[in-house]
Amino acid sequence: MSNESPEPMDLDSQEPEKSEMQLAYEEAKEVAAKGDNDKAISMFEKIIARLESEPSTDTVKWAENSIYAMADCLVAKKDSSRLFGLQKELRPVLTLMAKAKTAKIVRTLIDKLAEIDGATDLQIKACEECIEWCRESKRSFLRHRVETRLADLELQIHQYNKALEILTGLVKEVKKIDDKLLLVEIYVIETKVHFALQNIPRAKASLTAAKTNANAIHCPPLMQAEMDLLSGVISCRENDYRTAYSYFYEAFEAFNLQHDKVRAEQALKYMVLSRIMGDQPGEVFNILKGKAGLKYGGGRCFEGLEKVAKAHEQRSLHDFERTMQEYKKELGDDDAVLKYHLTELNESVLEQNLLKIIEPFDRIEIEHVAKLIDLPLRRVQKKLSEMILDETLLGTLDQGIGVLVVYDELEVGRGRLTVCSTIDACSNVVDSLYTKTTTMLFGNGGPKAKEAEVAAKTKGA
């Protein structure tokens, strides 16, 4: 008989036995990976259906995973109508899950619709139907989150008044339950709506409210990065480009760490924009040749921004406008922030070029200015009018003979002083006449004469 003791079992090397639900889920995933989406959907449906008969923790876990996988299959098929109806089909199953899990599933299904082109209307309809169901079944937790998503969708289709109406009601309700994380999300969307309406003070107020609530909780990194991005955009609108760059840099770092490629690119674009607008076009080339630029700085948009920076550095209006025309989609149509600031910069470069041409002259024909700058007469005339009204150019347009008359700054200053002294002299004359009139009416003595004298002195003061 052998005296050798049996070798001890390596417990770490033994994998836990997979459940029947897990095996079924993995098999369905393999079928989906091969591209047979219809068969995979059928298999996922069977897994989900078992939750009604076997409501255990394991069944809930694999049913939830099956719902997400089934939604992915429908997205791959571009079957938006079936995906739209899926949340209604799943309502009996969703009642067996925790409310927080239900909210996550419903929001994910709505977000999955966004991955199919032209499904925004279905997303809105899905939100509205879900909100109605939440009201009937008294699911406030889910309703608040779906209403937040609906407000965001209304913002995307430029229905700003509808979005504000939803958000106003939401803020009142969510404040009562003190859900600070949801409040942050609501205020961020509200900031975007007010900014889109060009109401910058209200946008700043909403963003401040979002930051205040975020400071009271552990704010998710992506939400914090989005607030930094919005802070930078608002600082840009207020012409504080140095501060804007700092915010954009913080946002870029966070998006990069979270592997959010789309928003990291957006933050990098705005970093480049803030350097161009801050009259530091030379810094643009350093950014795009750095680590961040090499990772995210490819594509036509960054090519266009680099050319804009070069044109701005050389103060070349024609190169600037040629670049804006060549990259019209990337620098204008696709991004409202880029479009606004680059249009402002274009006008600024035009002003500088006009002032350079006009500088040696006291009088100059507008048509001659248009020829020198090589722009249409109407545009030059309009811009000169704006410059005169904004007082960036001291002069007047004699449109009868088509001539710009330029004033010397000292001459204008003397003229203003003369006008002011004339007004003061007229005021003194009126006060003197008022005093003499009251004296004639009421005499030199008496209370009324004294009252009139005091009134005249007060008026003169």
From TrEMBL:
<keyword id="KW-0647">Proteasome</keyword>
<feature type="region of interest" description="Disordered">
    <location>
        <begin position="1"/>
        <end position="22"/>
    </location>
</feature>
<dbReference type="InterPro" id="IPR040773">
    <property type="entry name" value="Rpn6_N"/>
</dbReference>
<protein>
    <submittedName>
        <fullName>26S proteasome non-ATPase regulatory subunit, putative</fullName>
    </submittedName>
</protein>
<feature type="coiled-coil region">
    <location>
        <begin position="143"/>
        <end position="170"/>
    </location>
</feature>
<comment type="similarity">
    <text>Belongs to the proteasome subunit S9 family.</text>
</comment>
<dbReference type="Pfam" id="PF01399">
    <property type="entry name" value="PCI"/>
</dbReference>
<dbReference type="InterPro" id="IPR050871">
    <property type="entry name" value="26S_Proteasome/COP9_Components"/>
</dbReference>
<keyword id="KW-0175">Coiled coil</keyword>
<feature type="domain" description="PCI">
    <location>
        <begin position="240"/>
        <end position="411"/>
    </location>
</feature>
<dbReference type="InterPro" id="IPR036390">
    <property type="entry name" value="WH_DNA-bd_sf"/>
</dbReference>
<dbReference type="GO" id="GO:0000502">
    <property type="term" value="C:proteasome complex"/>
</dbReference>
<dbReference type="Pfam" id="PF18055">
    <property type="entry name" value="RPN6_N"/>
</dbReference>
<dbReference type="InterPro" id="IPR000717">
    <property type="entry name" value="PCI_dom"/>
</dbReference>
